[in-house]
Design brief:
The chain is α+β, with helices and mostly antiparallel strands. It is built from 8 helices and 10 strands.
Length: 310
Amino acid sequence: MEEQARANNSSLGWGLHSEIVAPYLLRYGSDHLKEKYLPKMAAGEMIGAIAMSEPGAGSDLQAVKTSALKKGAHYIVNGSKTFITNGWHCDLVIVVAKTDPAKGAKGTSLVVVDASMQGFTKGKRLKKLGLKGQDTAELFFDNVEVPAENLLGQESNGFIYLMQELPWERMQIAIGAIAKAEAAVEWTKAYVSERKAFGKLISSFQNTRFKLAELATEVQIARVFVDRCLELLLQDKLDTATASMAKYWVTDLECRVIDECLQLHGGYGFMWEFPIARAFVDARVQRIYGGTNEIMKEVISRSMGLGGEK
């Protein structure tokens, strides 16, 4: 994940395929589903996606409208999803749907939809500000008959499963963010050590040196926090609030660091062939997906017993 971040690799969402979709199948899928999909996913013969966001429900997963109603030996899936990473290339998609709409979040389930199933269609590939190498699409479900055995875990436990897996998803975002911020400082250090202005190296100006000193310090602080969160993760002690802290704080820092580094590149920082320019547009979505940073603050505040329902 870190090497892909440093390389500005915005191609197919392999992290989502391997570290989000596959774990859902591994932890909650039946032996049948594991045997059917995981070997092909590991071999690259099938691409996985997960469909959470809808046109009217982004970070608020409780508000999803897509339904999966039981009918005999099948679930009938209806609805639409948007902003789905790997949506255009996916061969299977885990769909967040309401199996009991009257129960709200408690009626949410996860079902595996195969791209070969009748009634499942892929909409247009969406044109994004950044991450241009990564496909993002709309997905549509029109009376898709999904075998009941394609249910992940137990019916109506979907929201619980999502809450269990989201800390690792948010940590993945933080991991990429810290690596990208570190890379931005290194790219900028190299640039200002070669580029001249007014007959002097840009690195010789106190403003440049002090600015990079500040950024390097803040990035180091973030690295220590991310590493601590990973330590907690390996001990099965990373809670949702702490993962939310890492996601929001490190991605905010990532965007600020890259912006400051782009400024130190001057006009060249605005040129697409420079890595800092691509990093600038790719970083912006980090504060949005995986739950917006505003939602992260809501999660953290509620864990402190401040306002709202726990």
